[in-house]
Amino acid sequence: MTVEFRGLRRTYGPTVALDGLDLTVAQGELIALLGPSGCGKTTALRCVAGFERPDSGMVLIDGNDVTRVPANRRDAGMVFQSYSLFPNLNARDNVAFGMRVRRRPVAERHSRADELLELVGLAGRGDRYPHQLSGGQQQRVALARALALAPKVLLLDEPLSALDAKVRVSLREEIRRLQLELGITTVFVTHDQEEALSVADRVAVLKDGRLEQVGAPAEIYDRPATPFVAEFVGTMNHIPGRVTGDRVEVLGQLLPIDGTAPGELVDVLVRPEAVRVTPAEAGPALIMASSFRGSTARLRVQLADDSQLLADVPGHDAVRLAPGLRVDVSVVERPVLVTARAATSDDESVVSA
Ligand code: ADP
Ligand code: MG
């Protein structure tokens, strides 16, 4: 089953939640809808589920226009951010709820619910009530419930954001495993870029109700199409540069440009992992701070002009590259993205997280 958003527009009074969203999710694909709070992710998902009707544009499931089909006839399973289980029903009855509404026989309901609970790693927990389950377990039940009627499409609205970090990672891996196993076309909404990059076949970045870029995770990360995507996905240094011909001079280096330069004076966008830091007794730069992250350490380095850069180095170099050390700074030789220099940035580099 494919899911297609075609020119989807939805307003709430003066607020434009969706502003002509175009996106096609392929059969069996998991697409992450990624964007900041308020960019229209939930509205887009609710339009697919049938809880929301667009002002204009269409939603197609498997090529059929379902824009006017009621939610209960759309074959979409949905999981919400907050635990949406019925508190007075145990896990089994929560999972079986949709089957009960459809008047399936009790025995069938129960065996199917237990089967699904097993699928999401909750075998034997069918008798537990929501308050007897952890947050992660409750979301597993919600996932089982969404899958109970064998939907054509799975819709996940920030399903992990209320969970703590460890559970979030393990549950997202499990959702992905399950999704691949079932081959179910899935739209996974998140504002967490790491989550989007790690779980999806493709990431669709939304801004102000429009699609900003869609592509494989590595493509979104390495080749952001717009400054917004570059900023939103991962961390970027902005270093002032000067374009000469097809190259840009940055930190005294001449680097090839990816794409076309918007002018002579530009901001060069460089990831922290592309900044090289080497000890140099009379080096022009100074390590100001270091935060150890295990496999890597992130350094904050001050340049001669007082601007600062972030640099990621291998974790085992963290002791050697300590705050107070004078260093040389360079950019790993590879094409870089350049954008028009921000009017406010003067000649100062801006570090953004
Ligand atoms: P996201 O899920 O990306 O955070 P939403 O789709 O929930 O964004 O919301 C997009 C925009 O539409 C926001 O500005 C939000 O305040 C607005 N909005 C969403 N639902 C409603 C509603 N029922 N009434 C009024 N405004 C809404
Ligand atoms: Mg939302």
UniProtKB/TrEMBL annotation:
Name of protein: ABC-type quaternary amine transporter
Enzyme Commission (EC) number: 7.6.2.9
Describe the location of the ABC transporter domain by residue ranges: 3-233
| Gene Ontology CC | ATP-binding cassette (ABC) transporter complex
List the source organism. Acrocarpospora corrugata
Q: Does the keyword Nucleotide-binding apply?
A: yes
Query: Which key words are in the record?
Result: ATP-binding, Nucleotide-binding, Transport
Q: Which Pfam families would you find in this protein's record?
A: ABC_tran (PF00005), TOBE_2 (PF08402)
